[in-house]
Amino acid sequence: MAYALEDEFGDIIGKARRGQNISHTEITTETGITESDLTRMEQYTLKPTEAQVYKLAEVLKLDGAKLLDIATETWEPIPVQQDGDTKLDVITVSVPFGGWPVNAYILICKATDEAAIIDTAANPTLILKQLDTNKVNPTAILLTHSHRDHTEGLPKLQKATDCKTYIHKNEPKPQTANKLHEVVHSDVISIGDLMVTVLDTPGHTPGGCSFLTHTAAFVGDAIFAGSVGGPNISYQDEINSVRDNLLSLPDEVRLFPGHGPSTTVGEEKLHNPFF
Q: Fewest CB within a 10 Å sphere: which of 20, 107, 138, 261?
């Protein structure tokens, strides 16, 4: 099985350790795993034993059984199906940025053919091509956060579409050609007949947010399949906001992240070791 997750075992324990400000030395004291071996695990050059996975999970406050499934590469999310959704379509635009794939999305209201562009994947040209190919009318650009891989090329996209651009009030503002419209938790943006609700998911960035409509949520770098985004600002805020504002949604809600494969609320409740 080709392993498709954005984060491997090493990424997960590294994010949990750094987010909780736990040193290699402290983990060695608690687990008996040497600092050298721990470094190699975080760098993907040493696979842990089952016993080591459970020891690390206990110290890092992760779910051991879920972490073991990722360490042994025995779980990845079931591919998200869209055929049964009568209200919306989602087009994924995934391109490399800095050597790693990043996702942008086009959310389409089936009833009106109006669309929202969600992030830029640093490739406005490809997004514009998808809009033309699918013959949809873009009416908004929604930014989950302002990191360059999600906003690079925004001015070109704005000038080509004349769309309003929405970003959370607490988020640092990217380079822009037009006025940015600030949003906060529970604000609603209309895309054709779709009502898109803003959900606070900070922690990776100060004003990171997600966009929920019907059975689809666009989550930026708040949560990945089996992991979370790097907790650059606050580990606890990230964990709390994802748990309270995303994993509290119905199990069938599809999660479209900024990196890696799409997943569902139900899959993440069962398999994400951070929760």
A: 20
**Same domain for 35 and 162?**
no
**pLDDT level of residue 3 (50, 70, 90 thresholds):** low
Number of other CB atoms surrounding residue 153 within 10 Å: 19
| CA dist list (Å): 77 to 55, 219, 226 | 25, 16, 8
Q: What is the 8-class DSSP label of residue 149?
A: H
Query: Does residue 1 carry a pLDDT above 50?
Result: no
Beta bridge partners of 108: 89, 115
Contact 5, 260 (CB under 8 A): yes
Measured distance CA(17)–CA(119) in Å, rounded = 29
Find out whether 183 and 168 touch, Cβ atoms under 8 Å: yes
Q: Residue 180: its pLDDT value, please?
A: 98
Tracing tokens 């899959």 back to the chain, one arrives at 267
Widest distance between CA atoms in the chain: 60
Q: Angle 247-252-256 (CA atoms, 0-180°, nearest 5)? A: 70
**Do 146 and 220 reside in the same domain of the chain?**
yes
Beta-carbon neighbour count of residue 175 at 10 Å? 11
Residues 119 and 199 in one domain: yes
Query: What domain count does the chain have?
Result: 2
Q: Model-level pTM greater than 0.85?
A: yes
Contacts of residue 54, Cβ cutoff 8 Å, sequence gap at least 6: 64, 68
